[in-house]
Structures are given as C-alpha cells and as structure tokens.
Specification:
The complex is a heterodimer of chains A (133) and B (163). Chain A has 133 residues and is an alpha+beta fold. Chain A has a domain of 32 residues. In chain A, 38% of the residues lie in helices and 15% in strands. A three-stranded mixed β-sheet of chain A has the order 1-2-3. Chain A is globular, with a radius of gyration of 15 Å. The two termini of chain A are 21 Å apart. In chain B, helix 4 packs parallel to helix 6. The longest helix of chain B is centred in the N-terminal third of the chain and has 15 residues. About 18% of the residues of chain B have low confidence. Chain B contains eight helices and four strands; from the N terminus they run H-H-H-E-H-E-H-E-E-H-H-H. Chain B is an alpha+beta fold and 163 residues long. Chain B has a domain of 111 residues: Glutaredoxin, CATH 3.40.30. In chain B, helix 4 links the parallel strand 1 and strand 2. The chains are: A alpha+beta (133), B alpha+beta (163). Chains A and B meet through helix 4 and strand 3 of A and helix 4, strand 4 and helix 6 of B. Chain B: InterPro entries: Glutaredoxin (IPR002109), GRX_PICOT-like (IPR033658), Monothiol_GRX-rel (IPR004480), Thioredoxin-like_sf (IPR036249).
C-alpha cells in the first residue's frame, strides 16, 4: 500500500514550495507560459508547478497545472480546448512534462466562475514511471 | 469494483483468450499467444488494431495507472471515483503500467499525451479533467444514458426529493 502524501519535502523546503505553488518559476513553467501566451493570447493564465504534490521535490516541474482563459476557446468543446493546449505544448509533453492538468475557459466562463476544482491527491503513480506518463 | 463484476471480466476474457487470472490488458491483447505481447509494430499490444479492439470491447473503457481496486495515480483514481459515484462499476480498465507498448499505443491512437484516458462507446472522451467537468455539468449522466447506463446519481436525486 503506497503512502497517499509525501509531506517530507514540503515541510523541509517550505519557502521554495510556497513559491512553486504560487506560480511555477522554473524553466519549464516559463517555456509553458510563453508558448501558451503566444498560441492562445489568454486574458488570464496561471502555470503552477504541482510536482510537489506527486512526491517530487518542489521545482521539479514534472507535473504542471495550467489555468488558461482565452476567447480562442469559444465554441469549442472541452476536448478541443485541451487539444489546443496540448498542441501549444507539444515539445514539452514529448519531453520532461509528465502530467498536465488543464482548466480551459472562455473569459465569460471565467468571470462567472473564477474557481479551479481541487486537485486529486497523488497516489504515487510517478514512482512507477520509467519514462513518460 | 465488485467481485461479481471482476469475476465476469475474467471469465469473459479467459473464455476467449486463455487461462483465467491474467491481468485484463494482457489477456485482451493476445496473452494466449505467449507470455506477454513483446514489441510494437503490426499486431503488437500497442498497435492501432489492438487499441481499436480494446476501446470497442465495452461501452466504458479506461486506460489508467493501476487498477480500479488499487489506482496508482491520483488522476486515475479520480476517474475511478467519478465512475463509482455514477454507479458505473462494470467497465474495462487497462493498467498501462503493466504494458509499455499499450501505454504508448493508446497515446498515439487518441493523439493525447497523458493517462488516464476514458472511452465511451469506442470514442475518446478525455482525461480526468474533462470527466470531472462532465460530471459537474451533468453531461456524464447524459452520455451514460446514451449507452443505456442509468447513472446512480439519478436515483440519489429521486430519493432526496422523496425525503
């Protein structure tokens, strides 16, 4: 039975963890941010490094979450919206990015609901990875 | 995952492919031909044909990490829990951690880079985020209805109204 959470790294490096939670600042998060800005011209964009939630050290950048608010999503089903995000991040997803949680809304939707659903707790899946997710 | 459903899977697959007790993903992709499906390419467990067979084998098919009884990833677990909320316990789940060829094959097939992946009636529906959205906005109840599956949430609503 695997442990459900990995509190160790979070407590040990709380300063970095808090910065990582607030908005990824590492190279991968920066690349993701620029690509999404260029591809989707979002009115609101958050790129969060959630690697710490998956047993990795804060700043590992293996698991990211993005909140993208863009008029480009208008008229598109969720699947198509997510595919647009994947297309923009093709290189990263082929490389070090193991998991990507996506919230994709139009500006109208974001205005009426600026909340992000809570992330599910990690169950240690990355520990079983030899390579990509 | 109820024992009755698990037993039904194993009997169903075993009848078609080989000895019972084999993990579903291996049994369904040619375990009878030999120990494990080696290599990709034509006929391998990750080929388009093999994946196509899997997604069409049942109205609800999930590719995940771990199993419904023991998910090994929070996102995969979220899919299992959402299906469970709707009373959907009878579905085909494939553990991609058991089969690297299937893991890559399913991503190529759906042109989707991550796991879990949910298929309804052979059609790719999305990952954990999308399933959660569908659950929250009522679309999942509708999609299940189209498959002839009555969501347990409909009955829960009825009970609430009665009280």
């Amino acid at each position: 039975v695997l442990p459900r959470q990995m509190p160790g790294p979070l407590l040990a490096t709380s300063g970095r963890a808090l910065r990582a939670m607030a908005g990824g600042s590492g190279p991968l998060a920066s690349a993701v941010r620029s690509k999404l800005l260029a591809a989707l011209q979002p009115t609101h964009l958050e790129v969060l490094d959630e690697s710490w939630r998956h047993g990795g050290p804060p700043g590992a950048e293996s698991h990211l979450a993005v909140v993208v608010v863009s008029e480009r999503f208008a008229g598109l089903a969720p699947l198509q919206r997510h595919r647009l995000v994947h297309a923009a991040l093709h290189a990263e997803l082929a490389g070090p990015l193991h998991a990507l949680a996506i919230v994709a809304r139009t500006p109208q939707q974001w205005e009426s609901d600026p909340h992000v659903p809570p992330r599910p707790p990690c169950l240690g899946g990355s520990k079983h990875d030899q390579g990509k997710e | 995952m109820s024992r009755v459903v698990w037993a039904a899977w194993r009997l169903g697959i075993a009848a078609a492919r080989g000895p019972a007790g084999r993990p579903l993903s291996q049994a369904a992709t040619g375990g009878a031909e030999g120990a494990g499906a080696e290599g990709g390419g034509g006929g391998g467990s990750g080929s388009r044909e093999a994946v196509e067979r899997l997604v069409r084998a049942h109205p609800v098919v999930v590719f995940m990490k771990g199993s419904p009884a023991q998910p090994l990833c929070g996102f995969s677990n979220a899919v299992v829990q959402i299906l469970r909320l709707h009373g959907v316990e009878d579905y085909n789940a494939h553990d991609v951690l058991q089969d690297p060829d299937l893991r890559q094959g399913i991503k190529d097939y759906s042109n989707w880079p991550t796991i879990p992946q949910v298929y309804l009636n052979g059609e790719f529906v999305g990952g954990c985020d999308i399933l959660l959205q569908m659950h929250q906005n009522g679309d999942l109840v509708e999609e299940l209805k189209k498959l002839g599956i009555r969501s347990a949430l409909l009955d829960a609503e009825k009970d609430k109204d009665k009280k």
